[in-house]
Write a structure and sequence with these properties.
Layout lengths: L1 H25 L11 E6 L10 E6 L15 E5 L2 E3 L2 E5 L3 E6 L5 E7 L4 E8 L4 E5 L4 E6 L7 E7 L3 E4 L5 E7 L2 E8 L7 E7 L2 E6 L5
Parallel strand pairs: 1-16, 3-6, 5-11
Antiparallel strand pairs: 1-13, 2-12, 2-14, 3-4, 6-9, 7-8, 7-10, 10-11, 14-15
The structure holds copper (II) ion (CU).
Amino acid sequence: MTSRFNTVLSAVLVLGCTGTSPETEGATDDTLPASAAGVVFGQAPAAAGGIPSVVMLSPASGEDNSAPVFDPNPMIDQFGLVFSPSILLIGMGQSVTFTNSESLAHNVNLRQIATDAMVLNVDTDPTESAQYTFDESGGYDVRCDVHPGMTAFVFASPTPYTVFANLDGEFTLSDVPPGSYTLTVWSTDEALNSERTVEVGEGRTELDAGPVS
Ligand SMILES: [Cu+2]
């Protein structure tokens, strides 16, 4: 049994060497990065209720997940009777500061969409601010109870490889290291959510991010 195992192992090693030597020769230019990051693009569902789809790539277990793509100090200001920005992408666990830069009394009413739970409801008088830490991933509606027209949207993602699609559903995500990922698409219309395993290569990779049929 042992000798037969060794024979098989040797054959694999020989095949491995034969298969990799041309690539090794081609990679001798040391000006090239060891692993060129890829660009991922494709078509996700169109916006639902004015909220764009969120496209997330979660690295397979053991992969580095520390790419610093989110604003380290995310803020939403209240000025001119609007929240600005009106949509905000953050990393799960980040704190968002809600500021009020005008001489009107506002309020921040934050609702977690998945649970329909109100997680923050504070008055923000002129020059005051409020803060909330998004320990749970997902989408959140932001409203001002004083001014019903004031709305915003926050998405807290568990992975740095995350982007809002445009209103038509088109998305592009840059600087993604090649490898295996779970592609998750989130929409306020739950019927459009999907999850699938994908491979990201060097260069450009087109991914189908539509509903799984
Ligand atoms: Cu207001």
